[in-house]
Amino acid sequence: MASNEKIRNVGPKSAAWLRQVGVRTIEDLRNVGVIETFMKVKRAGFRPSLNLLYAMQGALNDCHWADLPDEVKTGLVQSAGLAETANPIKNRWDKAAARSAARDGTTSVDGGHEYEETARDDSDGFGDGDREDRDGSDAGEAARDPE
Description:
Elements: H1 12-20, H2 26-32, H3 34-43, H4 50-61, H5 70-86, H6 92-104, E1 109-110, E2 113-114, H7 139-144
Antiparallel strand pairs: 1-2
Helix pairs in contact: 3-5
């Protein structure tokens, strides 16, 4: 197969994902590797299925992905799992929760990492730095001085 031909087993949507992460030819795939390419696609925010993993390996083996032996497929899944464990991929929810926790000073568990709780300010939650109720009364003062 010439290096500028399309990658075997890969449809238009997957080909677009691969182009997005810089894998345009079979030679690019060979250089980057199947597992790393799969992880790059996932890190780019796409949601590839295992079929993409099998398709890329089939392309390197110059066979249809369904013809890959079960041992090869199992090895690919295990390798992808290990790669993700070594460098967890944060989804949009994890990233948003971490940003929110950092901004609010609360504890957040993100991808197995717990963030320490930081000192909270005693503001009223409006971000203007005071503790005054919106009606003009000072609820904090009333709580401290009951007279």
